[in-house]
Amino acid sequence: DLAGTSSTQPRDQREPAASGASRDQHTPQPSFQHSNERSSLAYVHQETDMMEELLKQKGDNSTLSAILGCIYGQCLGDAYGLATEFESKESVARMYPRQTAIPFPNYVRTANSSNWRKGDWSDDSDQMILIMETLIEKHSADELTFARKLSKWIRQGFPDLGDKGGTGLGHNVRLVSLHNDFLLDPHKASREVWESTNKQVAPNGAVMRCSVLGIYEYQETDRVIENTAKIAKVTHFDPRCVASCVAVNLCIAYILQKKFDVTTVDGVEALINAVKEKTLESVQMPGGHIQEFKFYT
Predict the structure, then answer these.
(1) Which residues are annotated as part of the binding site for Mg(2+)?
(2) Residue 285 CA from chain centroid, whole number
(3) Count of CB atoms within 10 A of residue 228's CB?
């Protein structure tokens, strides 16, 4: 519990991510509220989707399509993966003995997925959305703004979606967010929590949310790396965590830059090798961690 809310509070009111329907088909939806001010991006009942209009314009929309695919893919992949998160291969086989694909959103509920409504995405995408909000509000990967938004999300989730708290909050993020200096200097708070574990704890709570930073300023590789590291370190100071985020976002940026032909095996291998090289050049890690990074990439 944090400030009287539970990090495992089910999202009883949220609609499945796979559903394209409005939460209320009969009444206008409220405008999105951002920083206590009415946003210029407001959707009401039956309003035309702005992205759809952009995609109808003449010209090459492949980059825009790829960007949208990355964002929607994050949320949909997250929602689908929630069906078997933390389950073993044997457990999944028992739940789906005669099926080659897991039915979505009508999958078998598990102890973990029961914390969300069927079809919902998890804290992975919630926190990605917080990063998106930070970029929109500050026009930069501002770690103080992200820390403030994360702290607010922990307390109340997204109230407009019926949340009562930040569902799925990881132990490491919780510890860092409770640090006295978190809202003043999140990198200091994150570093001190990491150091208190003898610099051993390196969970995956930063890489799960980072993808949108591979899109932002994707033309400038060094900026992608800088932005990614700044946001990762808000809660995950271990260089292995930073390296994993940088590697993911370099993949995204390079694909958007069209540097490699990822429709071929050779092109994908070239992409991976370039990402390895650039990540190791950019993130300082002990020798053992370098070998581990090379093995897993």
Answers:
(1) 122-124
(2) 24
(3) 31
Which residues are annotated as part of the binding site? 122-124
Query: Could you give the CA distance from residue 137 to residue 35 in angstroms, rounded to a whole number?
Result: 9
Kindly give, in sequence order, each residue whose CB lies less than 8 Å from that of residue 281, ignoring residues fewer than 6 positions away: none
Pick the more confident residue, 202 or 42.
202
Q: Is 5 helix (H, G, I), strand (E, B) or coil?
A: strand
The number of residues making up the chain comes to 297
Rounded distance, CA 152 to CA 166, Å? 9
Would you list the domain boundaries of the chain?
A: 13-19+55-121
Type of residue numbered 52: E
Please confirm whether the linkage preceding 105 is cis (ω < 30° from 0). yes
Q: Is 211 helix (H, G, I), strand (E, B) or coil?
A: coil
Q: CA 143 to CA 148: how far, in whole Å?
A: 9
For residues 20 and 121, the answer to whether their CB atoms sit within 8 Å is no
Q: Report pTM.
A: 0.81
Q: pLDDT tens digits, residue range 243-252?
A: 999 999 999 9
Give the angle 120-123-124 at the CA atoms, nearest 5°: 100
Q: What is the pLDDT of residue 61?
A: 83
Only one residue has tokens 């997925």, namely 113
Alpha helices in the chain (DSSP H): 50-56, 62-81, 89-95, 123-138, 143-156, 171-177, 186-195, 212-215, 221-232, 239-257, 265-282, 287-296
Quick count: other Cβ atoms within 10 Å of Cβ 46?
9
